[in-house]
Design a protein that fits this description.
This protein is mostly beta strands. It contains five helices and 24 strands.
Length: 314
Amino acid sequence: MTRFLLLHHPSGWLALDASRIQRLMARPRLVRLAGATPYLVGAFQLGDAVIPVVDLDLRWGIPPPPPTLQDQLVLAGSAALRAGEPRDLVEGHLEPLPPEWAVLPQARPLLQGLVAFPGGVAAALDLDRVLEVPENLSLCPSPTPEGWSDEDLRVLEERASAYARESSHSEGTPSRALALFILGGERYASDVREICEFLTVGQVIAIPGAPPAVKGLTQIRGRLVPVLDLAVLLGRPAEEREQAIRLIQPEALLAVDRIEEIREVQESSVRPMSTGPGRGLWRVELPDGPAVLLGLSELTQTQREGRQVQGGPA
């Protein structure tokens, strides 16, 4: 089994080999590249490195949607990809691309095959081919004219500066990948090594007499899996939540409000919370705001033992 990141693209679902992804990041302000091919829409500085950005739509020869401040880039190696909205992390097998596959035929040379997941089928991108860029690129002195307001450009400039500072202080330091998510208006994080996949909460069958945190059981590919409300485990009120994190061990779904992204962070940014309602937990300092780091497997175990963890705001 291989772990894939699913991207929601207007042409359909796309899949990227998650082992190749260094991080997901909000789009910084881009600078033009002299003499670059059309699908290289610009570059930004990350520490001492200049990272070219490939637009997948232009790579396929179709017009891309207009850029927005909500755009995210996938950083893989020495280049970044603008390809769609990152959604879920799933496990699956890479199957050969059928000869009759007719969705975006111009994209076929850039695909490795198909990946089946609970919500459908995704086309797996060959990142080596997609992110192939010419050597000896040089930055132009003026930024790419993108038609954004001065305030938009200021935000992008701040993002690019934050990424550069983060990278310059992190070379050679330990890091790990965290899944960021929202629960009750607060931001939380968890180590992706605990997570099997992200799902939407389907039909839940209530269990009479179950503890308050147990919403019930749901069926996932023929298996009955318990659904827990993570907010209740943290001592907060129960609410209806549509998204969930599926743990590897113990097998369970933890209902949350919204999955944000997967991001690689430096170990030095993780610090204990010694005061307040979150005492005993850990805080992750990120360029765009902090998050409370949770051990989801441990939290689930506390439910079995009848204990509760108080999770304070980030």
